């Protein structure tokens, strides 16, 4: 899996939260996908356009938080990380580091 991310030159990302997008246009067709662990609770879909803009959709079955990172070398050090979750009151948060 780290080899896949190591080949991404431009790391632009956009997360789609379909359940918060009512009334919005349909998300673009994402040609590539993979489950990231054996129980199929984390599903990643992605694609790129002619300008090498990357689009990602991460679907995670969780009641807490999730983190997703990109690294040109497959390690945590120096990677770009997005952390998101839902507070007990239902509000959503995202943080990029």
UniProtKB/TrEMBL annotation:
One GO-annotated biological process of the protein: norepinephrine biosynthetic process
Sample GO molecular function, one term: dopamine beta-monooxygenase activity
Stored Pfam families: DOMON (PF03351)
Signal peptide residues on this chain, from the entry's feature table: 1-23
One cellular component term from this protein's GO annotations in UniProt: secretory granule membrane
UniProt keyword annotations, A-Z: Signal
InterPro entries: DBH-like (IPR000945), DOH_DOMON (IPR045266), DOMON_domain (IPR005018)
Domain DOMON positions: 40-97
PANTHER family: DBH-LIKE MONOOXYGENASE PROTEIN 2-RELATED (PTHR10157:SF31), DOPAMINE BETA HYDROXYLASE RELATED (PTHR10157)
Protein name: MOXD2 protein
């Amino acid at each position: 899996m780290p080899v896949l991310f190591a080949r991404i030159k431009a790391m632009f990302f956009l997360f789609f939260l379909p359940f918060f997008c009512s009334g919005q246009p349909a998300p673009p067709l994402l040609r590539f996908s993979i489950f990231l662990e054996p129980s199929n609770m984390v599903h990643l879909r992605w694609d790129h356009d002619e300008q090498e803009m990357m689009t990602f959709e991460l679907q995670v079955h969780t009641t807490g938080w999730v983190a997703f990172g990109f690294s040109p070398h497959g390690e945590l050090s120096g990677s770009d990380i997005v952390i998101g979750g839902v507070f007990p009151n239902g509000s959503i948060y995202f943080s990029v580091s």
